Amino acid sequence: MATFDDEDLQEEEALDGESDDENVGYDYAFVDPGPSDDQMCPICHLVARKACQANCCGKIFCKGCLGKLRQYSDEFKCLICRKMLGKRYFKDKRMEREILHLQIYCTNKNEGC
Asked: Is 110 helix (H, G, I), strand (E, B) or coil?
């Protein structure tokens, strides 16, 4: 078991300036108790990476998923409450800390680690 780190807890970057591997949530095997429903992104259905909170309903999304939503949809609306998002979301550092403190199994667990 280990606590995982996301090395880029740096300043916020532009939403559409992400690499492909940073555009979705964390896909790890989590130690019980695993992530809560509040920590799951409703777009990619994974644990939110670089958690952003919508001001309209308080739902957490991956920063990269919001960027894709904005880039590929005609209207940038919240998927939960259907209100226009615009710039009505923020980086949720408290949730990001909680997520980064979740424990995961070693990625080599299947090889006997």
From this structure: helix
- pTM confidence score: 0.75
Peptide bond into 42 cis (omega under 30): no
CA distances to 4, 11, 28, 44, 51 from 67, rounded to whole Å, are 24, 16, 22, 12, 12
pLDDT per residue over 6-60, tens digit each?
443 333 344 444 445 567 899 999 998 889 999 999 999 999 999 999 999 999 9
Tokens of 38: 């509040």
Q: Indicate the burial class of 111 (C-beta count within 10 angstroms; 0-12, 13-18, 19 or more).
A: exposed
Q: What angle do CA 90, 6, 15 make, to 5 degrees?
A: 40
* Residue 110 tokens, joined: 């299947």
Q: Is the pLDDT of residue 66 over 70?
A: yes
